[in-house]
Amino acid sequence: MIRQRLAEYLSNKGVSNYQFYKDTALSNGYLDKEGSIRSDIIEKISYKYPEINLTWLITGQGNMIKEVDPVQERTKVYSLRTDRLLDDQSIPLYDIEASAGLVELFRHNGDSTPVDTIRIPGLPKCDGSVYVTGDSMYPLLKSGDIVAYKEINDIQNNIYWGEMYLISIDFEGEEYISVKYVQKSEKGDSHIKLVSQNAHHQPKDVPLEKVRAIALIKATIRINSMG
């Protein structure tokens, strides 16, 4: 029954089975199998489709979509098993444009002047936070949301495949900054695949040598407003 409700949700949102398998890295035909769904799979589904009501998905009770207060600040934490959660920390909020891009921000992180600070208890250690621009991660993230990040220095060895990253790419001499899922590329270890939440944005394989800066997203903050 869980698979049937999941299929109903995907149909309702216009998400094809192909897109679902790509989003979740599950094998083709998974939706057609019999039996229950493991908790780690449900967690992965919730991560990729945060608006789905898990109570409805598991039990069939309630509404398909989570009910959200239209004026409310929401924080979603993406923590790893190795993360040490901090009861209190002050996370600087930076303006990427004022910092001349992500590369310069990371290079002069200790000297950059934040536009504000964020204090949320129970977050993993973060190096900073920035505003999101663009719609590549919609509906998970929208332009104006905030992401808190942890800088990654060793790109070759410290990428957690399938996680969300703030990334700077050298695009014909210009810096292209975006938030993407980073997956392994079929082109081999010399490339990474950047995947959007928004189905209208196609995945793109990028040479590692084009990555100028990268940071693991540790939390996202959305302020919902009717205005």
From TrEMBL:
Q: Does the keyword Membrane apply?
A: no
> What sequence ranges are listed for the domain Peptidase S24/S26A/S26B/S26C?
92-215
Q: Which CDD domains match?
A: S24_LexA-like
| Superkingdom of source | Bacteria
Is the keyword tRNA-binding assigned to this protein?
Answer: no
Which keywords describe this protein according to UniProt?
DNA-binding, Transcription, Transcription regulation
Quote the InterPro entries the UniProt record gives: LexA-like (IPR039418), LexA/Signal_pep-like_sf (IPR036286), Peptidase_S24_S26A/B/C (IPR015927)
Any matching Pfam family:
Peptidase_S24
The name of this protein is: S24 family peptidase
